[in-house]
Amino acid sequence: METKEKIYRTASKLFLEQGYDNTPMSHIARELGLSKAGLYHHYPSKESLLFDIIDYLNETNFIPILKEAEKISDPEKRLIFFLRRYSEIMTMDASSRIAVHEAGKLKPHHSKIVKQNWRKTFTLIKDAMSEMQASGKAKEISSTFAAFAAIGMCSWTYYWFDYSRKESAEELSETFIEILLRGITKGKE
């Protein structure tokens, strides 16, 4: 395993266990068997390490989903695909929590990059909802609020999802799709 990957995995584990603010670089270095100077050789700051972790999670998990979803012309299928894949990723690995929960700790230049990716997610969902409304397939509700609700529903899963029961991930994603697209109350028959 490469040094940067080992640092990434160790720091991610510690950030998940203790939180970003409660994990000093000296603790990360100790866990890695490195000196603090040795860790700083690879990362000039803890914030730059956090950015690399979030950027890695975005590039490997979230961006590929967005790119695939953007290829789907039918807005309902696009929305279903995105919700299914995004909620599955949030249940596969708790480290996704870092990308959501700790992103607010980034400096402005790093935060801007992360926010651009989140903006793409928001736009994908909002546009799909708007297209469905325009075709008469969706209720006339705020597509902005609906997009935030969908993102929030999936993004905050890590606070309560039991990662020891990953077999329930598919059921969870299907439940999210049902809640968003069909609503939680019965319509008129």
Task: Walk me through this protein's architecture.
The chain has nine helices and no strands. The relative contact order is 0.12. The chain has two domains: 1-44, Orthogonal Bundle (Arc Repressor Mutant, subunit A); 45-182, Tetracycline Repressor, domain 2 (Orthogonal Bundle). It is mainly alpha-helical and 189 residues long. The chain starts with a helix and ends in a 7-residue tail after the last helix.
Proportion of residues in helical segments? over 70%
**Overall CATH architecture of the largest domain:** Orthogonal Bundle
Give the overall average pLDDT.
89
- Superfamily (CATH H level) name of the largest domain: Tetracycline Repressor, domain 2
Text of the CATH class of the largest domain: Mainly Alpha
Number of domains: 2
Taking the sheet with the most strands, its summary is: none
What is CATH's topology name of the largest domain? Tetracycline Repressor, domain 2
Following the backbone from N to C, one meets helices and strands in this order, namely: HHHHHHHHH
How far from one another are the termini?
Answer: 58 Å
Number of helices: 9
Poorly predicted runs are none
Strand content of the residues, in percent? under 5%
Record keyword descriptors for this entry.
mainly alpha; Arc Repressor Mutant, subunit A; Tetracycline Repressor, domain 2; 2 domains; elongated
